[in-house]
Design goal:
This protein is an alpha+beta fold and about 200 residues long. It contains 7 helices and 6 strands, in the order αβαβαβββααβαα. The termini are far apart.
């Protein structure tokens, strides 16, 4: 399952909000992955329960604070904070429902959203990790091919470079043979003829 950047951002926000519910001792926290055909604008419902009004308000306030501080995200609207029986934080792509236990049983959002896929925070985290692991495997499977191609290019270049000087050396030898002047062998000097004995006698 490939996720767009906006979907990844939404999942990160839901994960952070669910972590707040766990930290503040929210009960039976569930993430409903809504059916796109039935969900309208939202992708997820985050539902948790509180034992009293004070805890419900504390959970809602901490979710709002943490998402604002860590992600710079503000809820589009907040409802029910005054009474604390059912506090709704609308972040458009997901909606947080913080119920007091009796009210949650009365409205039973999970039953109303039968097409939704309920997940615990741990299951939701596991899905995110699986998506990340799949993306990492895909990146690694592509990396060796690129690295091999990159390493092959320098080898080819080096081979080409080593071959060129050999060709040049042969060409130099050939040109040297052509241009080198041939040495002419000097003819042997004839020995001067010695005067015959008769001529020597006459001169005397």
């Amino acid at each position: 399952m490939r996720l767009s950047p906006s979907q990844k951002q939404t999942r990160a926000l839901v994960q952070a909000a669910a972590a707040v519910c766990e930290d503040k001792k929210g009960l039976n926290t569930r993430i409903l992955a809504l059916d796109p055909a039935d969900s309208g604008l939202s992708d997820f419902f985050l539902v948790t329960s509180a034992t009293n009004e004070r805890q419900a308000v504390a959970i809602a306030d901490e979710i709002e604070l943490r998402l604002k501080r860590d992600f710079g995200v503000y809820p589009n609207s907040v409802e029910g904070r005054r009474h604390g029986e059912w506090i709704l934080l609308d972040y458009v792509d997901f909606v947080v429902h913080v119920f007091q236990s009796e009210r949650r049983a009365f409205y039973d959002i999970e039953r109303l959203r039968k097409s939704a896929r309920p997940l615990t925070p741990a299951e939701f985290d596991a899905e995110l990790k699986a998506e990340l692991a799949e993306k990492t495997r895909a990146a690694r499977s592509k990396a060796p091919i690129k690295s091999r191609a990159a390493s092959a290019k320098p080898a080819i270049k080096s081979a080409i470079k080593t071959k060129k000087p050999a060709k040049r050396a042969k060409a130099v030898k050939k040109s040297a043979k052509k241009t080198a002047p041939r040495r002419k062998v000097a003819p042997a000097k004839k020995k001067a003829a010695q005067p015959s004995a008769k001529k020597i006698k006459r001169t005397r």
